[in-house]
Amino acid sequence: MGVRIGNLLNRVAGAAVLAFVLLVASTGLAIWWNARQDSRPASDAIVVLGSAQYNGVPSSIFEARLEHAITLYEDGVAPVIVTVGGRAAGDAFTEAEAGREYLASSGVPAGALLAVPEGVDTLESMRAVSAAFGERGWHHAVVVTDPWHALRAERMAEDAGIEAESSPTRQGPAVQTRGTQLRYILRETAAYLLYRATGESVAGAPGIG
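Predicted structure:
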């Protein structure tokens, strides 16, 4: 009897491990596949997720997102670009403000810009954007972020009540080498599974929170 129970427990444990491995693998594949998509439907706004900024100057990751948003705006995807992101301790500018100023200096009209200076991670940012959308009667957004971050950003936007699709940037540090891409995919896989399991975001590295 003891041997049979032991064998049964081993099988259950093996099945659980296999299910976990398949879940991680399928999630990583979904992140990779979604990163290769580029949706540009006519929308109420283009939402650029913030990243690090240095005294009002966007980091290279953030700049790549902003440049892509300019392309989408010029292509007529949406009449407004929304920048979002709060302020880290000691910063003089929020990510949203730094992004708005970069876009304005690049020739985007002030009337086509909206800064939402809230959020220390993707989930908080999407909830803040959702509130801004609600105030204006907007519903649909094209989200601009890094390719590997796109799936989780879309999910969080939809959970916040926004009809979201993503058009990830193809430039910047997140896509420079295959090693970098693999590292981002692994980190995003963990972050996405954590969010689906707990409903919470994970703050940390640029594009991951």
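Summary: The beta strands are 45-49, 53-54, 57-58, 81-84, 113-116, 140-144, 163-166.
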